[in-house]
Please model this.
Amino acid sequence: MGDGARQEQDALVPVLTEIVDDETGGRSPAVTAAALEALARELERAVLERLGPEVDRVIEERLARTLSNVLGLALDTVRAELTVSVTQMVREAVAASVAHALALPPKD
Model:
């Protein structure tokens, strides 16, 4: 093939830098907006169906860990408050008992 014939053939082959007319000839696109919306909804449903149990598991694990931490702190607070209350009650009971014993008349 000569240079002239090759240049003619090369001119017929589009290159990436050339703009090529749409071959649909003005027809509507093969996929409509409604079809894309339906596809998106179906894809969303399928993804949520598959990931739903995993999401639930992760949430439950995090919730359990958080509740455990919160309950642990609350339990520590309650334990400290109970310790103070019981200690105070014992002191008051001992003081009352001692005061009562000192107030009794001596036994013969």
